[in-house]
Task: inverse folding
């Protein structure tokens, strides 16, 4: 069987990479949507994921109807970071009109794989990571969305909110990748913690994230009596959000997350960009490119609005008395 046929197969194998291609009219514009780990069935208009639901609703509003004039090929690397380069080469080999990619490491693999197919990237600090030279004129065949508007300062904001929610905490942890902790992000977060007078150590994950590794890290935190937790905004943790929330609850550790998808299943709080706003702008960039604009001339969109969401139900379960002033500042309260 040819490799391309293997990628396109549905149900033929559960091996990486898993892709879904809908049957579409021959003249439809064809885009590929690639995620590092989310199941392809969640990359649709009916997804529980607010971002993808908003994306396809906005594309439909702009006249792109899947099954009529839009063909969408969906791919997931299923958390296999070691196969990003292979996935990028395979998707590029299908020659779609445009590729939407999520997360810095995966974006860099696609940037290396093609200089001609338009790329729309949803990533963190796109300039510091070398994805683009400029936000105003990204250049080449790439544009996208920067989710890291304030740079690493946003982590200081999250630490401050966590301190407000749990002022008695003295032994905080940052659940993050070792590779991030040992580079610029880790250094910036440690500096922010020192300025706030917070004792912060890394709860470090190595390589490809899996359930066993997450459980071991939480066991170590519990043994070390960690009493506050901040969770990295890496897409590799998304499939394990329910597990992370449950382990934080079991360990009675107040936690702040970088995405609302952790708060919805019971996480304590999040301070994050507005997902709906961000993905509406992804749709806008896709529309512009499909109408003929060069991606390198389209400025990178920076999320302009951040949301504070607090789950009071979880706070009560943890025995936390959330300050009234903090609750009053919340954009959304889950009771």
Result:
């Amino acid at each position: 069987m040819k490799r391309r046929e293997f990628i396109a197969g549905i149900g033929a194998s559960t091996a990486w990479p898993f892709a879904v291609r809908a049957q579409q009219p021959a003249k439809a514009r064809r885009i590929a949507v690639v995620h590092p780990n989310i199941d392809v069935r969640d990359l649709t208009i009916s997804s529980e994921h607010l971002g993808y639901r908003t994306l396809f609703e906005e594309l439909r509003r702009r006249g792109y109807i899947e099954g009529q004039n839009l063909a969408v090929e969906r791919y997931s690397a299923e958390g296999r970071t070691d196969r990003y380069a292979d996935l990028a080469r395979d998707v590029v080999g299908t020659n779609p009109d445009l590729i939407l990619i999520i997360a810095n490491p995966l974006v860099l693999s696609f940037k290396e794989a093609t200089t001609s197919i338009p790329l729309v990237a949803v990533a963190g600090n796109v300039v510091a990571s070398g994805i683009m030279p400029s936000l105003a004129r990204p250049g080449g065949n790439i544009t996208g969305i920067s989710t890291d508007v304030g740079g690493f300062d946003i982590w200081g904001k999250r630490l401050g909110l966590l301190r407000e929610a749990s002022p008695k905490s003295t032994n905080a942890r940052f659940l993050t990748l070792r590779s991030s902790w040992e580079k610029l992000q880790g250094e910036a977060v440690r500096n922010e913690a020192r300025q706030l007078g917070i004792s912060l150590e890394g709860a470090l994950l190595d390589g490809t994230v899996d359930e066993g590794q997450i459980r071991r890290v939480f066991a170590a935190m519990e043994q070390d009596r960690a009493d506050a937790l901040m969770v990295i905004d890496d897409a590799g943790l998304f499939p394990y959000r329910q597990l992370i929330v449950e382990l934080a609850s079991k360990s009675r550790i107040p936690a702040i997350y970088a995405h609302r998808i952790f708060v919805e299943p019971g996480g304590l709080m999040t301070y994050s960009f507005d997902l709906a706003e961000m993905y509406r702008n992804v749709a806008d960039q896709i529309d512009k490119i499909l109408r003929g604009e060069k991606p390198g001339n389209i400025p990178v969109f920076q999320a302009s609005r951040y949301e504070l969401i607090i789950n009071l139900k979880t706070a009560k379960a943890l025995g936390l008395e959330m300050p009234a002033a903090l609750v009053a500042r919340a954009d959304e309260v889950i009771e």
The chain has a mean pLDDT of 88. The first strand starts at residue 18 and ends at 21. The radius of gyration is 20 Å. Residues 275-290 form the longest helix (16 residues).
